[in-house]
Design a protein that fits this description.
Order of helices and strands: H
Structural class: mainly alpha
Helix content: over 70%
Largest sheet: none
Keywords: Membrane, Transmembrane, Transmembrane helix
Length: 63
């Protein structure tokens, strides 16, 4: 049904859709890398605290 003066919105071309999908993929990959790096940093901090605690406990037990 067509109404005079009404123009249907244009659909984005296949190239625009492809570029948009590529940008979304890149953003998701970058965010995933940042999140994994952040989690790895927290893990190393926890490991360092545990190692220091174990070292202090062992030194206190032996001395």
């Amino acid at each position: 049904m067509s109404i005079e003066g009404y123009k249907e919105p244009e659909k984005p071309s296949i190239i625009k859709k492809g570029v948009a999908a590529l940008i979304l993929i890149v953003v998701v990959v970058v965010l995933a890398k940042i999140l994994l790096s952040f989690l790895a940093g927290i893990l190393w901090l926890v490991i360092a605290v545990v190692v220091i605690g174990a070292l202090l406990w062992a030194a206190n037990t032996l001395l």
